[in-house]
Amino acid sequence: MPMRNAKNILRHELIGLECEVVRARNPQNTGIKGRIVDETMKTLVLKKENETKRIVKSGSVFRIDVGNQKVDVEGSHLVARPEDRIKKKFRKW
Fold it and tell me: How many Cβ atoms sit within 10 Å of the Cβ of residue 64?
């Protein structure tokens, strides 16, 4: 499988990537930055310094660092179990 990039980020593992919450339904979550340490069907867990924050995917926009690029990803595209999302086909991305 090719390296992670802006076009194929939805088909790759997100754990370990740096991420920022650009927009969220809960305004307190907007602006949170950290490393993705866990992913469930409906949430991403970001670790910032010594604390972790669980962010709901649906209704959020995440700015993910992929190599030397930053990619904005709609959380609704990420809503699935990670192992199922990797196999899923996306029409327009």
Answer: 20
CB burial class (10 A; 0-12, 13-18, 19+) of residue 69?
exposed
Q: Are 36 and 19 in contact (CB under 8 A)?
A: yes
When divided into structural domains, the chain yields a total of 1
Q: Domain limits at 77?
A: 9-87
Question: Does residue 29 lie in a domain region?
Answer: yes
- The answer to whether the CB of 46 falls within 8 A of the CB of 55 is yes
Q: What is the pLDDT of residues 56-71, one digit of tens each?
A: 999 999 999 988 889 9
Instruction: Provide the 3-class DSSP secondary structure of residue 91.
Output: coil
Ramachandran quadrant class, 16 (left: phi over 0; alpha: psi -120 to 50; beta: rest) = left
pLDDT in tens, 15-35: 999 999 999 999 999 999 999
Q: Is 71 helix (H, G, I), strand (E, B) or coil?
A: strand
